[in-house]
Design a protein that fits this description.
It contains 10 helices and 12 strands. It starts with a strand and ends in an 8-residue tail after the last helix. Helix 1 (11-17) crosses helix 3. The protein has one domain (3-295): Class I glutamine amidotransferase (GATase) domain (Rossmann fold). With 303 residues, the chain is α/β, with parallel strands linked by helices. Belongs to the MetA family.
């Protein structure tokens, strides 16, 4: 079943070209089913690229989804046109009276800042508070995951000596009766791209958290709250094949000293085209979240 997105959203043409099942409002209203309402707080600089990354994964499930994109009112992005955000994004004040079945909070390249130093942190806190009573389950990605660990569970991030960038192998833990991991291999690959990390020991010691997957090189990757309402992924399973390549080249153009993304380019040669080893688990993560933590858990009528 499809994702229901605005007819003029630029990502639509790309998704249709890839044979992703989407529809617009006109077609959706002819189907007598209750679609899931998913809101995406997109904090990434290139919002259109991130829209494609996430919609590609949401569109591969047997559910009809109404998608709402959310932007911060306290910060205007520099890498996305104002006309795009005005046409396709809502502010918190515009949606705070509504109920949503699922919320996705993306990453943001601001790990060097303390959370309280982020320009829109107070707004983020209001959104996360609001979600406690108005959203069935939230999927937090990368910086969004670190923000959730800090805000909800008092686990802070810490800086790394150098950027963690590449694709890393992860081992599954605590998989018994965890629907989020259904279909996962005992080890799987996922991309990471960040300058900070969180303590695996602090996660394991927290009474309200369960560590589901971790990497010896990249650290904790996948965590879930005991009530299933918060899922945190510190990496980027939603990334496309060449996203890390684009970030690496961008960093070089900025004059930054960065290593070649680990385990990414064939023969560690940036001139070679990277291969995608994580696509199947990306689809599994999003479909399992939607099915078991949103669709199966959300009420037909919010009260």
């Amino acid at each position: 079943m499809p994702v229901n997105i605005p007819k003029d959203l630029p990502a639509r043409a790309l998704l249709e070209k890839e044979n992703i099942f989407i529809m617009d409002d006109e077609r959706a209203t002819t189907q007598d089913i209750r679609p899931l309402n998913i809101i995406i707080l997109n904090l990434m600089p290139d919002k259109q690229a991130t829209e494609g990354h996430i919609l590609r994964l949401l569109g591969n499930t047997p559910l009809q989804l109404n998608i709402t994109f959310l932007k911060t009112a306290t910060y205007q992005p520099k890498h996305t046109s104002q006309s795009h955000t005005e046409n396709f994004y809502k502010t918190f004040d515009e949606i705070r009276h509504k109920k949503f079945d699922g919320l996705i909070i993306t990453g943001a390249p601001i790990e060097h800042l303390q959370f309280e130093e982020v320009a829109y942190w107070e707004e983020m806190a209001k959104i996360m508070d609001w979600a406690e009573d108005n959203v069935t389950s939230t999927l937090h990605i990368c910086w969004g995951a670190q923000a959730a660990l800090y805000y909800h569970f008092k686990i802070d991030k810490f800086p790394l000596k150098e950027k963690c960038s590449g694709i890393f192998s992860h081992r599954i833990f605590n998989s018994d009766n965890i629907e989020l991991l259904r279909g996962f291999d005992d080890e799987f690959i996922a991309p990471h791209s960040r300058y900070t990390n969180v303590s695996e020991e602090a996660i394991n010691e927290h009474p309200d958290l369960t560590l589901l997957a971790s990497s010896p090189e990249a650290g904790p990757f996948l965590m879930i709250s005991k009530d299933g309402r918060h899922i945190m992924a510190t990496g980027h399973l939603e990334y496309e094949t060449d996203t890390l390549k684009q970030e690496y080249e961008r960093d070089l153009d900025r004059g930054l000293t960065v290593r070649i993304p680990a385990h990414y380019f064939p023969d560690n040669n940036p001139d070679e085209q990277p291969l995608n080893y994580w696509r199947s688990h990306a689809h599994l993560l999003f479909s399992n979240w939607l099915n078991y933590y949103v669709y199966q858990a959300t009420p037909y009528e919010w009260r």
